[in-house]
Design a protein that fits this description.
The protein is α+β, with helices and mostly antiparallel strands and 468 residues long. It folds into three domains: 7-116, Immunoglobulins (Immunoglobulin-like, Sandwich); 127-331, no CATH class; 342-466, Glutaredoxin. Helix content is 44%, strand content 19%. The chain is built from 13 helices and 15 strands. It has helices at 7-20, 108-111, 119-138, 147-172, 176-205, 235-252, 262-275, 279-294, 300-313, 317-331, 372-388, 403-413, 426-433, and strands at 34-41, 47-52, 55-61, 67-72, 78-84, 87-93, 98-104, 113-117, 342-346, 351-354, 362-367, 393-398, 419-422, 440-444, 450-456. The strands form three sheets. Strands 10-9-13-12-11-14-15 form a seven-stranded mixed sheet. A four-stranded mixed sheet has the order 4-1-7-8. It has a four-stranded antiparallel sheet with strand order 3-2-5-6, with no helix packed on it. Helix 3 (119-138) runs parallel beside helix 5 (176-205) and helix 6 crosses helix 7 (262-275). The radius of gyration is 23 Å and the shape is globular. The N and C termini lie far apart (48 Å). Keywords: Membrane, Transmembrane, Transmembrane helix. Pfam families: Thioredoxin_8 (PF13905). The chain crosses the membrane at residues 7-22.
Length: 468
């Protein structure tokens, strides 16, 4: 979509240009003054949280026109993030940068633009981020293909991203520290996909491919430093490390059935503890492992064994508390438990209360316009299942913030097999049903109790769950 600067942005640039956005010699080279401001259309709340890693630096309250502007008397150069919850994005500051943003919270990532001193670097990161996201969606089907097809697809998308990186680097001429981040955005996206491929391929096709990969398939691992301090708070890095551990465990497993077992999750913790020396990276990774384990194993005895080791490795007490709080919520979603109540909206605007409205065996699945390939393939899969299992009803729940976006996507794709619902409160859905991955699927009994709250439509054994 075409991005436009608002009048507010132009006004600030014209009024403050001499002070904030002029050449370097306008600044005292001994201070680290920086400025951050902008305008948010359709904000989800009236404030913006500014963070360094997982630490809150400041909170900026929006005025009556949904604008904010802040001067930092001293801001250490580096990577930061800002949130208008539940959405967030990154912003990179070099010394004396002065940045303004404009975004529409209904289309957070696609609408975000930067202007001012330091804007070119940040706009590049956003351009690359959006390209990587589109690339991942486009590769959704490629995970089911043979390794030759997959590697060709990966190479094409990698070359496109690398070309963009080299072009922008030559034009912007950024420094070494930013270059480390920019290059990581290219390399880690490619590495992540290659780590995911053996897992996703086997998960979705039932065919083991881990022993059929080319001898040089994992060569990229040699160039990635798992203890790179400059990247510890960058989600592509954490995502890659998590995928790496999953894949290393899969390589040692006999079948996919073992992938989420107690034994293999303990192995993930042990590998992370051995490979990762940076405590911050280690804490983020082992907590991600713990979150995923909680969504897969509801055996109390197993949980005790897992968390005994987890407690020895994890050192972040705040993250530990969050994990244990999640464990308590997940326990409420055990087999035969009543599904917690949520109010959703149907395509005619009527309120639908679940599970009260459930009168027959039901499959609940989730989708968003932000992952279009998943939405299309999920509905296609549902069409096949509906024909084979007529005693089930299939309910599609859209999690996009904007109701109009949901309606537009329905009209665009003419999804027919499922009963379509929408939630206007994704946070409540996440809180009650622990939906932290769009690929989650829930199977509900006719009386509104849970049969299995933690499955995937694309699990090769999914249909076994539908058989009585």
């Amino acid at each position: 979509m075409q991005k436009k600067y608002s009048y507010f942005i132009y006004f600030l640039v014209s009024i403050l240009g001499v002070t904030l956005f002029s050449c370097k010699d306008q600044f005292n080279q001994e201070d680290y003054t920086a400025y951050f401001g902008g305008e948010i259309e359709n904000p989800k709340n009236n404030y913006l949280i500014f963070m360094k890693g997982d630490q809150v630096i400041d909170t900026f309250h929006l005025d009556k026109n949904n604008r904010f502007f802040h001067k930092f008397d001293s801001l250490t150069p580096g990577l930061y993030s800002f949130k208008n919850e539940p959405e967030y994005q990154y912003v990179y500051f070099e010394k004396n940068d002065s940045l303004l943003i404009q975004l529409n919270a209904n289309d957070f990532d696609n609408s975000l633009v930067f202007c001012g001193r330091g804007d070119e670097k940040n706009n590049f990161l956003m351009e690359l981020y959006l390209q990587n996201e589109a690339d991942r969606n486009a590769l959704f089907e490629a995970y089911e293909k043979n390794v030759t097809y997959f590697e060709k697809s990966c190479k094409n998308s990698y070359n496109k991203a690398k070309s963009l990186y080299l072009k922008r680097k030559a034009f912007i001429k950024w420094g070494a520290e930013f270059d480390k981040l920019a290059l990581a955005s290219v390399e880690l996206n490619n590495a992540y996909k290659k780590e995911v491929y053996p897992i996703a391929h086997e998960f979705r096709t039932g065919n083991t491919i881990k022993n059929k990969l080319p001898a040089d398939y994992y060569n990229y691992r040699k160039a990635i430093d798992l203890n790179e301090s400059a990247l510890v708070n960058y989600s592509p890095f954490v995502n890659y490390v998590t995928a790496l551990l999953n894949n290393m465990v899969l390589t040692q497993s006999k079948t996919m059935d073992d992938e989420m077992s107690l034994k293999n999750n303990i192995l993930k913790l042990e590998i992370a503890d051995k490979l990762i020396k940076n405590n911050h990276v280690k804490n983020l990774v082992v907590n991600n492992i713990a979150n995923m384990y909680l969504l897969s194993d509801q055996c109390t005895e197993n949980n005790t064994k897992f968390f005994n080791l987890y407690a020895k490795i994890a050192t972040d007490e705040k993250l530990k508390k969050q994990i244990m709080a999640t464990a308590k919520k997940i326990h409420k979603l055990h087999e035969h438990a009543k599904l917690p109540e949520l109010t959703l909206t149907d395509t005619k605007g009527n309120k639908v209360l679940l599970p009260s409205a459930i009168k027959q065996k039901t499959v609940l699945f989730f989708w968003t316009k932000e992952s279009e390939s998943h939405a299309v393939f999920a509905h296609k899969k549902i069409a096949e299942l509906k024909a084979k299992y007529p005693t089930y009803q299939f309910v599609a729940i859209n999690v996009d913030e904007n109701t109009n976006d949901w309606q537009t996507e329905l009209n665009k794709h003419t999804f027919e097999p499922a009963f379509e619902l929408h939630t206007s409160n994704f946070e409540e859905l996440k809180e009650k049903w622990i939906i932290n991955k769009i690929h989650r699927t829930m199977i509900i009994n006719a009386n509104g109790t849970i049969k299995n709250a933690f499955v995937s439509l694309f699990d090769v054994n999914f249909e076994d769950q539908l058989k009585d």
